Structure formats: C-alpha cells, structure tokens
Amino acid sequence: MKNVLLIVIVICINSCRMPADPLGEIKIIKRLDTIDTGGNCLDIDVDIEDSILVAAANHNGYFVYKINSKGGIVSDITEQKHVGVDEMDNSLGDNRAQSIVLSKNHDIAFVMDQYDHIWLYKYESGATQYSIPNYMEEDCYGGTWLNIAIDDQQSRIGIYTLLKHNAAEDEAGDFLEYSTSLVWTSLKGIDPSSISPVQDEPNCEYIINQSSIAEKIYFDNGLLSMTYGELGVRVFKQTEYDGCLTDNGFIELNDSNLCIENYDNSGEIDYKSCCENTACPGGMGECPWLEEGFGGVFSSVGGIIPQIFAEFDTPGEVEVIFSEGNTIFSGLKYSNGCVMSILDDDGNIINTNQFAIGYSVTGIHQNNGLLALAAGHDGILLYNLSGSNVSFMGKIETSYANAVRIAGDIIFAATEDGIEVIQIDFTQ
Questions:
Q1: Which of 26, 62, 136, 405 is the most exposed place for a label (fewest CB within 10 A)?
Q2: Is 81 buried (19+), middle (13-18) or exposed (0-12) by CB count in 10 A?
Q3: Residue 348 pLDDT greater than 70, yes or no
C-alpha cells in the first residue's frame, strides 16, 4: 500500500511540474513549443502592432521574430534576423545582448550590452538592415552603460541611461568613485532609411550622481523610477521646460526671470549659460561654473529634474522596477514578492500593496488589467489588476523566467531555455 501511495505522489508531483499545466484558474488557449535562442534569453520586448518580438540571448546575440496569428490566435513565431555576437562588434570578445527596449513609434530596437554599447536595430518593413556595427557612443562622463529607459515621442526618442563609474574621472567631473549617474540624450536619427544613430542636443546631459546600489530604471508618463537596492525605490520627474536648479528649487527659465547679459550670437538669451555660468535667475545667488550639464544645474525640456520626486523603502531588496502612470511596481529579491505603490501628484504614497510573498520577482509587465510577474524558477505569476486591487489568477510553469511581456492576452516569457509564448483566455 505504501508503494502504491508513493507512486501516486510521484506521478502527482511530476504532472504538476509539466509546463503545459497552469496552477490556478487560467485557461490556456494556445501554447507554442519553446523557442530555442541558444543562449540564456535574458529579456524580450514586443511590438504587437507590427507583430515583432525582439529577444536578448546573452552570449548568442539578439533575435528578431515575426509573430504570426490566425483568427486572433497566435499560430507560430518565425525568425527574421539573428544578430550574433560576432556581428555586433568584431573587435571585442565580450559581446552580449542583455536587455531590450523597443521604440514602437519608430520601430527601433535598443539592445543593451552592459559596459560596451547600446545597439540600434530598425525593424520596420523595408527599413535598411544594418550591415555594419551601429551603436550609440559609450563615452559619456567617463561612465559605461548599466541600464536604459526611453521616452518614445513622435519627433524624437528621449534616452535615459544609468551609467557606472568604476573610478573617479577627474576630466569628467567630481564623481563619487564606483558610483552611478543618470544622463539623457535626445535621439533624432529615427528615419527608417538612416543607418546612423544621430544624436541631437542635448547629447549626454548630466542629471544626478547616485550610489552604486542604483541598478535599473524605468520610464513612463513623466516619471523615471529607479531600483535602489535594499533602500527601496527612488522616483524622478521629467521637466516640461528648460529649468535651473537653485536654492529655492527647480525653476523655469524664461525671458522674464533671466539675467539679460547672456546672449548667443543670434541675440537670443542663452538660457543654459545664464544658469550654469553666471548669476541664477531672480538674484538667487551665483551658480558654480560646471561642465556641460554636469551637476544637473541646468535641465533641458524633456530631461529629468535633478531632485528626488519620491522615495520609499521596501520590505526587501529591489530587483526590478515597472511603472504605469503614478503606480510603481517593485519586484523584490529573496522571496519578498512585489510591492505596488500609488503616488499622488506631489510624490506622496497614497496606497501600497504587497503581494506574491514567497516568490522572488525578476520581471514585471502589465497590460489592460492583466499583470504578469516573472518569478525565476517559479515561472510566471498572473494577476487581475483593478485599481489598487490585485487578485491572483494562477501560475504558469516555465524554466527559469528572467523577464515577461504581455500583448493583449498573450504572455511572452524570456527564460533560460528560450522564449515561451502562451495565449490565455482573459476577461477582466
């Protein structure tokens, strides 16, 4: 009898671990076979309108796939392009593709190779396919790329990057040794026929210097959220005007409050010079002379105000960050789950909710009330999100899940074995 019971338990355990069997009330409409990316698939992003999926496969470069569907049901995923590490930069032996962000307005994939490059790939149908290495220059205030977020506008793309300083760089500024810094760039090389990542002013405008524990950033709806390790989360706000940081706070620069001595060759007031090189507006004291953008004294429109808008501790160290509007989702390490924090317009927390306790969260995404968490060895956790209420729907087992994206009712998971594509029946 004991042997029979043992066999039943073993069968039950094995069946529960089968990837095709979700736990909870999830109805799977279609699940494709795992797409092998060769290397560990660390990140993915999806442009569902163009039916494009881009995957970062670590030491195997990155892939561009076409999402095919019939009658609203995903049928298969076909590979369009594989950019191997040898094609990324043949002068380097440490090429990797570690994270992906898509500009859906301009059909550009930003592929992050930490400490080397941010690669650009234009995936629009008919666009010029790069036959030469195409990347943004990494020499920015003596730092190297650590993480990226974008502000996807119609006329340009604002690129916010978190830089890592491995040592003090005297020629770049008085950085804290082994610290991180936030900078931003305005990218206007967005024409599909262009093969040049043309950067416009500002190019690498300095925002603020941070501790080394800052690791990841996310931008949405005017807020830049940052993981801050065991200290929780920091949030910064985008500026809608050229501004100057003074003793009285961040103020708008305009003709009425600027000293009138700073003109450029055209006779127009040079707002930047007035802020950085001479007296601050309104007789508020002198601004120190600083390198272009260094110190965050001047911030151009579309940039980030160099002051903390909101910060809050979390019940555990933050691994990943995601936001939508004024709602910040903090994915935590060491089985501490996820914290949803809702801010008011002044940066105060008006509601907080911790859930998924017992899971370590490696990725977060939300679309139309369907919230997905990548939970490492525990696969994908799905929740129904309504306002500040989060209700558990169930778990889909996968191999180790690094990241997740949702497009409608389709779940895309980046895992150590490749890409999982699962379409579910979801009605909020």
A1: 26
A2: middle
A3: yes
> How does strand 144-152 pair with strand 73-83?
unpaired
pLDDT tens digits along 18-52: 333 456 779 999 999 999 999 999 999 999 999 99
3-state SS assignment for residue 301: coil
In the numeric block, which tokens belong to residue 361?
A: 């969260």
b/e map 2-16, b = 16+ CB within 10 Å: eeeeeeeeeeeeeee
pLDDT of residue 308: 95
Instruction: Yes or no: say if 179 and 212 are a contact pair by the CB < 8 Å rule.
Output: yes
d(CA 329, CA 327): 7
DSSP 8-state assignment for residue 155: S
Q: pLDDT tens digit string along 171-189?
A: 445 577 888 999 999 887 6
Q: Which amino acid, one-letter code, is at 349?
A: I
- Could you tell me if 228 and 318 are in contact, meaning their C-beta atoms sit under 8 angstroms apart? yes
